[in-house]
């Protein structure tokens, strides 16, 4: 699938960008330089830039863009990096209360957020990407099977969704774990860098003794089901009695799992996550959104041309059906519309319910696709 090819390329170049910046600034400053924009080891601005370059490469290869000269690619890379760098700096500073770069000491800078010399360098990088790196990556991806590309894209998106969700301040318990793990990682890398440059003092760093990982061991899962099954059944009863909800059982969604089974999986895992991590999301709203988030009522595998944009379109279709048949309030509408974030980049989860559904939906989709449903706590 073309979209999954772009997803893999985005994460690959985001990781390479993180490696490049971390190594470069560590060498320059002789101390560990954290250049991430998220808890995972990626620098998203490089991924965004590479994605635009990949799109340009595809347009050139398909013949839609003709007579593209090398200097045109350079100028386009220069302009995009200047604009993208400035916007990214503003967004990152607002989200994380920190600046990832500051060009105040560089000539011809714009408020320290972007500069002409660095954009010239990125123009050269754009030329290198389109002419050398992207063709190499494209040939590599063409050797992979479509199922492997699809699964890899699912895994990468799931990792970032989970890691991003963990870093959001609304989920304070999650945030404590992320900070704890992140401090240990930063200290560990700082020790290595100091050893390399021979400037370390006799100091000690805290080492992570145990990382809390959310798991569903079989015995514990059975116990949880026994204790909480009754409440869960009460919350979902009305939905299973609805004829329109029953229609979802006609369509396969992921692997051999039907759309209705997927929605029940998401509802169950969301219910357990909310309980186990004490997130205090409204249970009725949470279950309602989970049971209706994929109420699109068609087989998206049928090969119809209109299904090619299913990933982008189905949240709105499901939301309209949920409004029509259940009259859901605006808060639940927003949660359904945002459950495919970051694929639908403008539909950002804005509530605890929306964040949980967004994270758990990716988890369940991944487990259903690779058919490890029962091993990882799903109901079907």
CATH topology of the largest domain: Hypothetical protein af1432
Order of neighbouring strands in the sheet with most strands? 1-2
Strand content: under 5%
Number of helices: 13
Largest sheet: 2 strands, antiparallel
CATH C-level label of the largest domain: Mainly Alpha
**Helix vs. strand class:** mainly alpha
Number of domains: 2
Q: Termini distance?
A: 26 Å
Shape: globular
What number is the mean pLDDT? 79
Name of the CATH architecture of the largest domain: Orthogonal Bundle
How many DSSP E strands? 4
As a percent range, the share of helical residues equals: 55-70%
Please write the string of helix (H) and strand (E) elements.
HHHEEHHHHHEEHHHHH
Poorly predicted ranges: 169-175, 199-217
Radius of gyration: 23 Å
């Amino acid at each position: 699938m073309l979209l999954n090819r772009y997803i893999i390329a985005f994460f690959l170049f985001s990781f390479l960008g993180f490696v490049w910046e971390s190594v470069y600034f560590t060498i320059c400053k002789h101390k560990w330089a954290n250049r991430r924009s998220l808890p995972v080891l990626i620098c998203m601005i490089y991924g965004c830039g590479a994605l635009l370059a990949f799109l340009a490469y595809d347009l050139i290869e398909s013949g839609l863009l003709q007579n593209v000269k090398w200097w045109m690619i350079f100028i386009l890379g220069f302009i995009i990096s200047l604009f993208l760098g400035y916007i990214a700096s503003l967004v990152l500073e607002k989200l994380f209360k920190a600046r990832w770069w500051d060009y105040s000491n560089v000539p011809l800078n714009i408020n320290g957020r972007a500069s002409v010399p660095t954009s010239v360098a990125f123009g050269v990088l754009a030329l290198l990407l389109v002419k050398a790196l992207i063709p190499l990556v494209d040939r590599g991806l063409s050797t992979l099977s479509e199922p492997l590309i699809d699964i890899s894209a699912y895994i990468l998106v799931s990792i970032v969704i989970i890691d991003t969700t963990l870093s959001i301040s609304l989920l304070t318990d999650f945030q404590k774990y992320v900070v704890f793990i992140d401090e240990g990682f930063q200290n560990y890398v700082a020790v290595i860098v100091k050893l390399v440059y021979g400037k370390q003092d006799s100091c000690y760093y805290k080492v992570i003794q145990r990382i809390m990982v959310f798991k569903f061991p079989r015995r514990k899962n059975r116990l949880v089901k026994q204790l909480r099954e009754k409440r869960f059944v009460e919350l979902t009863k009305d939905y299973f009695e609805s004829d329109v909800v029953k229609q979802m059982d006609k369509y396969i969604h992921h692997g051999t799992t039907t759309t209705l089974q997927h929605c029940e999986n998401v509802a169950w895992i969301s219910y357990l996550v909310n309980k186990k991590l004490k997130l205090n999301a409204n249970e009725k709203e949470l279950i309602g959104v989970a049971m209706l988030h994929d109420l699109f009522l068609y087989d998206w595998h049928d090969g119809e041309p209109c299904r090619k944009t299913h990933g982008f379109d189905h949240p709105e279709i499901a939301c309209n059906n949920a409004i029509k048949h259940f009259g859901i309030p605006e808060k639940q509408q927003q949660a359904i519309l945002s459950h495919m974030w970051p694929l639908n980049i403008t539909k950002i989860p804005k509530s605890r319910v929306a964040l949980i559904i967004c994270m758990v939906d990716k988890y369940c989709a991944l487990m259903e696709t690779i058919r490890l449903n029962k091993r990882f706590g799903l109901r079907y």
